[in-house]
Amino acid sequence: MKLTLKSSWLAQRPYLIAALITLVLVLWMASGPSVAEQKSEIKAQIPSHDEKQITAQVKVETRLGQHIHKTIELYGRTEPDRITTLKAEIHGKIIQVLAKRGSKVAKGEIIAKIALNDLPAQLTRSQALLNQREVEYEGALKLNKQGYQGKVHLAQSYAALESVNAEIKRLELDIAHTIIKAPFTGILNTRYVEVGDYVASGDDIAMIADLDPLIVRAHATEQQISQLSVGQVAQVTLLNGAQAQGKLRYIASVGNDATNTFKIEVEIDNKKANLLAGLSSELTIDLARLSAIKISPALLALDEQGNIGVKSVKKSIVHFTPIEIIKSESDGIWLTGLGEQADIIVLGQGFVRAGDRVEAIFDKVDDKASNSTDKQAATVTAATQK
């Protein structure tokens, strides 16, 4: 009966139950360690960052700079210095052909002859008429001085005389034009006529090309043209493997609207005529002399901004250095920006970033090995936890 009364009394006063539970929880929390003490204890149980840090090992080679020429490489084509197509200046039949296709002809050498036809007879008649016109003019001049003949008749006599002189000169030119001669020394590349062919004025007779000097024509970009000047030496490598040296003789002042490039010409001595026109060629023009380091293209890297460069080690810290490629060869590339000497990462550079602390393992190589092609590694070795 007493228990029932007590339960009923507590049920009517629930706030007393809540206060009792709150008091018990407060006493329980106060009896344990504080939050700060718990954090300190947890932090003490976790090893420090320095103890867990792993120092990457990278293979490093010391590369020394060498003085080389910065170059410009262009692709072009060999062409004759001069080329001309001889044409007939009068009509007639080809009666003689003296020069062979592919032969070397000297300036003034006869290539072919056209029939004279009646040109000599016309010239003889005009010369006889000239004598008559000279006598007539002299008589008119005397009569005019004596006052027996006027100026009109004198002028007519003089015009007739000059007309005959002009006709004689025309006939003499026509006779000279029956002989086709080479205008300059060169190669008779093509002959369009044979004996018996009939040609009219303007028909093609032969094509002559001057191959000494031989010209290599190429096109330079807007950035390259500012670095070129007339007289610079150029190395020429032809597609057939032949090599030659020439000088830059011409730089266009107006660029091509379609390609924004400028035409240049390099002339090559070709007195022996052993170099042909129409061959693809590569031009290498030396510019300023710079200190550069040679590496494998596999060692190039990009930073977060997309700049191309090389990763090196200075005082155990990785550094990214932007570079400029100045020359490319079959076994490597030459670049500037690293100074006279640099400790370049050659193994593991793909697994470290600028600012990382690394353990540099130097590879002792001689000068020849330092310029050999490097191979990029696929893995990097990490040191064990201290």
Automatic annotation (TrEMBL):
Keywords: Coiled coil. The keyword Coiled coil applies. InterPro entries: Beta-barrel_RND_2, RND_pump_MFP. Residues 154-181 form a coiled coil. The keyword RNA-binding does not apply. One of its GO terms (cellular component) is efflux pump complex. It comes from the Bacteria. It holds the Pfam family Beta-barrel_RND_2. Residues 216-285 form the CusB-like beta-barrel domain. Signal peptide: none annotated. One of its GO terms (molecular function) is efflux transmembrane transporter activity. PANTHER family: BLR2860 PROTEIN, MULTIDRUG RESISTANCE PROTEIN MDTA. NCBIfam families: RND_mfp (TIGR01730). Belongs to the membrane fusion protein (MFP) (TC 8.A.1) family. This is Efflux transporter, RND family, MFP subunit.
